[in-house]
Write a structure and sequence with these properties.
Blueprint (H helix, E strand, L loop, with lengths): L1 H46 L11 H14 L3 H28 L1 H7 L7 H24 L1 H5 L3 H24 L3 H27 L10 H35 L2 H14 L4 H15 L7 H38 L1 H33 L4 H51 L9 H11 L1 H9 L4 H22 L2 H19 L1
Helix pairs in contact: 1-5, 1-7, 1-8, 1-10, 1-11, 2-3, 2-5, 2-9, 2-11, 3-5, 3-9, 4-5, 5-8, 7-8, 9-10, 9-14, 10-13, 10-14, 11-13, 12-13, 12-17, 13-14, 15-17, 16-17
Length: 497
């Protein structure tokens, strides 16, 4: 199971990284073609449907969990019925909200403080985004056969290919005067093509998927699980994006644009964990029996420990290149306005990345109710915190509020996972702490010099070397070292042949 998860993670990571790489080149072009104000509006339009991710009633996760269980039982008919039933529920439940977004789009953009000269364009773009909103729910259900079989090569080829299509097409459409409407239309087209690709690929892996029947008996268990996910999703959608909404209201869409660039670049830290979660959800779902508890704990612990190992140098690297990246890749104003929120967001993301593992373990155990309780309890205090900090400190305040919340979330989820019997097995803790201390020295140097100069860069290189040696000798387990040597040997053999 671990080998399958690793392979799936590698494919998912590649699928997420490739579009991100091309996006690094395309985003500066998009920001220049649109300008900071219209780019902020574009982000806002794509963001609005994100507040209603609960509208599928949790069927994206339910279809994977129940579909993976049916697959492990060797019942393709049940798996196909599960997925079709989940898609049916997701479609019916998302249509009303999509319709409301489309019908009331003029009022919504006015309430969100969109400048008057952009409100007409924003209203039309939001109507297009409301259609994409429904289609994306179906995408997240019909990819379930790919995830259950850990065929991340198939799933991520579709995701990556279609995402690249959108990244390439957007600047072209903007160059010919498409504006925000054209950019959103490209995103809608990508969603439609993605759905067609998932239907074609999933039906090859699961021929029984093609059909129109559903199983009414499955509706209740799907809704029992997905209902808690949806209830949590209402609060989660606000928690995840509230600071952006508040920022647009108390500051401007231009400030939102600066903040969004910072958050988007910082989100690169989540690539690995987001990749492994795609494989862990079906894997954890198949290890829920008591006799598989040791295997579940080992997989959970290894994921957490390896995440800490790679996060430390990744965080340091991103902090060191943050200001130069924004200044020279975008513009001096982005370097001035985006760097502060970026540093704060990176600090929060360190803990947010670790929270992916307990989140997946709790979902695979069917404890979606925990998130409903936790997120709703957080909502009011977080809303007050965001309003106060964003009003007082702008983008930096919004980033600080978000980081405080995700640090609290990570702490709570790790504790709750332990309570349901999924245990973290510590290994090399003292060595990890020592290695972390060494790896953080370049950040201290950055604070002292107030710039990423040659001295800081050389220190970062030296510290990275020492960090790697400590991890290799005192942190990695024997089987992990053996696997790493085998992997390196295979790749060197291919290069030499």
């Amino acid at each position: 199971m671990t080998t399958k998860v690793v392979k799936g993670t590698v494919w998912t990571l590649a699928g997420l990284t490739l579009p991100m790489f091309f996006s690094l080149f395309a985003t500066p072009i998009v920001t220049r073609l649109l300008g900071a104000e219209s780019y902020g509006l574009f982000i806002l339009i794509l963001l609005i449907p994100g507040y209603f991710t609960f509208a599928d009633l949790g069927m994206n996760i339910a279809s994977t969990k129940f579909g993976a269980a049916a697959f492990s039982e060797g019942s393709p008919e049940k798996e196909a019925l599960t997925i079709r039933t989940a898609a049916f529920i997701a479609f019916l439940s998302s249509i009303p909200i999509g319709s409301i977004l489309a019908i009331f789009s003029p009022l919504i953009v006015w309430l969100l403080n969109v400048p008057e000269h952009l409100q007409g364009e924003a209203s039309i773009a939001l109507k297009l985004a409301s259609v994409m909103f429904v289609i994306n729910f179906l995408n997240n259900v019909f990819n379930s056969p790919e995830l259950s079989r850990l065929r991340m090569d198939v799933s991520m080829s579709i995701f990556s290919g279609m995402r690249l299509l959108g990244i390439i097409a957007t600047p072209i459409v903007l160059y010919f005067g498409g504006g925000v409407i054209g950019a959103v239309a490209v995103a809608l087209g990508v969603a439609v093509f993605t759905l067609a690709a998932h239907l074609a690929a999933s039906s090859r892996l699961l021929p029984e998927l093609i059909g129109f029947s559903i199983d009414r008996k499955l509706i209740r268990p799907l809704l029992n699980f997905g209902g808690s996910v949806a209830i949590a999703g209402v609060a989660a959608a606000l928690l995840v994006h509230l600071e952006k909404l508040v920022l647009a209201r108390v500051a401007s869409v231009e400030t939102l644009g600066y903040y969004s660039i910072a958050v988007t670049f910082a989100a690169m830290l989540t690539l690995f964990s987001a990749s492994i979660v795609q494989s862990l959800m079906p894997a954890f779902s198949q290890l829920q029996s008591q006799e598989n508890r040791d295997a579940l704990n080992a997989l959970y612990s290894r994921g957490l420990r390896l995440s800490v190992i790679w996060l430390m140098p990744a965080v340091v690297f991103m902090v060191l290149i943050g200001r130069p990246f924004f200044t020279y890749w975008f513009s001096e104003e982005f370097g001035r306005e985006s760097t502060g929120p970026f540093y704060i967001t990176v600090a929060g993301l360190f803990f947010n990345v670790l929270a992916y593992f307990p989140w997946t373990a709790l979902m695979a155990a069917g404890r979606s109710d925990i998130f409903a309780k936790l997120y709703w309890l957080e909502l009011l205090p977080y809303g007050l915190l965001v309003w106060w900090l964003a009003t007082s400190f702008g983008a930096e305040g919004a980033a600080a509020a978000w980081s405080i919340r995700v640090i609290f979330d990570a702490s709570m989820l790790l504790l709750l996972t332990h309570k349901i019997g999924v245990r973290f097995i510590p290994g090399g803790i003292f060595a990890i702490v020592g290695a972390a201390f060494v790896m953080l020295l370049p950040i201290a140097a950055l604070v002292y010099f107030q710039d990423t100069n040659l001295t800081v860069a050389i220190l970062a290189l030296i510290c990275s070397t020492f960090y790697g040696v400590i991890v290799w000798l005192f942190v990695l387990q024997k089987e992990e070292i053996k696997w790493a040597k085998s992997l390196i040997g295979r790749h060197l053999g291919r290069l030499s042949s």
